[in-house]
Structures are given as structure tokens and as C-alpha cells.
Specification:
Elements (H helix, E strand, L loop, with lengths): L20 H14 L8 E2 L1 H8 L3 H13 L3 E4 L3 E4 L4 H25 L2 H20 L2 H19 L2 H18 L3 H20 L3 H28 L11
């Protein structure tokens, strides 16, 4: 059942016991879900998870309960736990909210940009381009998240940043399947966004971010529909 999956190369680390075990198990499983090392629809067998993490089954059971309450895992009577399969509506609604938050962050960032902050954005941009050239999906997704987080930080609005932080993991989860196909155009749009922020043009920066996030939203929706038409999106299960 467990990766390393060819698409991600993710391996499962054993947990170090000095860390709070309950939180450590939760974080480990959530990370595997967000990076799609554990795929949507995949059967999560407590005994296997516990063995791979090097712990007992109880903290795994508690983590699965928490992940279920947050919408990451589905608990099915007489069947067990499964990674949640996001619907098109869920993905579209989340990316719509993300577009609103990030459009405002880009507008504010253009009003408060400094040479140092622009330098940071250019540095993060170069890291993203390098990740794209290397073809490492995890690195591309991480670089994309870091770039958007930097703009959010530059906005100077702590409430906005907090709200964006709450949806960041889910955005990464939805963005991962899109990254290989969307990546090149996405980073071109990032370059345009940097130039708008560097020019201090708030309206242009907001428009560039709105267009960028809306393209990702449409691309994600189209990709999902294409996969469903081709018989994709089926559950992956392993024996209990």
C-alpha cells in the first residue's frame, strides 16, 4: 500500500518519539496526503500505517479520526478509512476563495514593495524555474507555495495571511496533479506578476494575480473532467 510511489519518490519516515506522538502522527499522515504519496481514494490500513511509522495503532486511529473531522479522510462503516476524493465542486470553491485572497494580497504587495522584497520574489522565481527544469513535482509545488506565501507576507495584512494559511495545504493538494502540465505557463505568469509588483502598480498586480489563479482554477477543472471521461479518479485500495 505504501509509497515510495514513482510519481513522487516519497518515502515514509519513522517518527522520533521525543516529539508529541499524536501531533507527529497527524502531521506525517497529512503530509503524505497533501503530497499525494497517499492518493485520493486509497485505503488506509491502520496496522500498515502503524508498522511503517514504527508506532502502535492507537495514535494512528486518533490521527485518522482527526483527519476525518477535517475532511482529509473518509471513515466508512465496515470498510475502514480512505483518503478523501475531492469533488469538482470542492476544488472549484476552494480555488475561487484562493483567487480572492491572493488577488488582494498582490494588490497590497505592490503598494509596499521594497527592493529587498522584489529581490526575494525574483530569487523564489529562479528556484521555481529550476524545479520546473528538473521535473520534480514535489519541488515545483513547494516552490509555487513559497512564491505565493512570500507575496502574502509582503501584503502586510496579517488577517489575510492567516486566512490564506488555512487553505494553503488544500491548495497544494489540488495543485499537485496540475503542476506538471500547468507549471511552465504558471511561472511565466509569476514573472509578469513580479514586474507588476516591482512597478508598484496595484491594479496591474491584482489583475495579474486574478488571471493567474483563475487560469489554474480552470485548468484544474478541465483536467479533472478529462480524467473522469477517460475513466480516472477511481479508488485505489489495498487489502486490509
Amino acid at each position: 500500500m505504501f509509497p515510495s510511489a514513482p510519481s513522487t519518490g516519497v518515502s515514509v519516515p519513522r517518527l522520533k518519539r521525543p516529539a508529541p506522538l499524536r501531533e507527529g502522527v497527524y502531521d506525517a499522515l497529512l503530509n503524505l496526503i497533501v503530497t499525494r504519496a497517499l492518493q485520493p481514494g486509497q485505503h488506509l490500513v491502520e496496522s500498515e500505517l502503524a508498522a511503517h511509522l514504527g508506532i502502535s495503532r492507537q495514535p494512528v486511529r486518533e490521527a485518522l479520526q482527526r483527519l476525518s473531522s477535517e475532511g482529509w479522510v473518509d471513515l466508512r462503516p465496515a470498510q475502514g478509512a480512505f483518503v478523501h476524493v475531492p469533488t469538482e465542486e470542492e476544488a472549484d470553491q476552494l480555488l475561487a476563495v484562493r483567487s480572492l485572497l491572493e488577488t488582494e494580497s498582490a494588490r497590497l504587495a505592490a503598494l509596499s514593495a521594497t527592493p529587498e522584497s522584489i529581490g526575494l520574489l525574483r530569487e523564489l522565481y529562479e528556484q521555481g524555474v529550476q524545479a520546473l527544469a528538473g521535473g520534480d513535482v514535489d519541488s515545483i509545488v513547494s516552490a509555487n507555495a513559497a512564491f505565493h506565501a512570500a507575496i502574502m507576507e509582503l501584503s502586510g495584512n496579517k488577517v489575510l495571511a492567516e486566512l490564506a494559511g488555512r487553505v494553503d495545504r488544500r491548495v497544494r493538494w489540488y495543485y499537485t496533479p496540475v503542476a506538471p502540465q500547468r507549471g511552465r505557463e504558471s511561472w511565466k505568469e509569476h514573472a509578469e506578476l513580479i514586474e507588476a509588483i516591482a512597478a508598484g502598480d496595484a491594479d496591474r498586480a491584482a489583475e495579474a494575480m486574478r488571471d493567474h489563479t483563475d487560469r489554474t482554477r480552470r485548468f484544474s477543472r478541465d483536467l479533472r473532467r478529462e480524467e473522469e471521461e477517460n475513466g480516472g479518479g477511481k479508488e485505489e485500495r489495498t487489502p486490509a
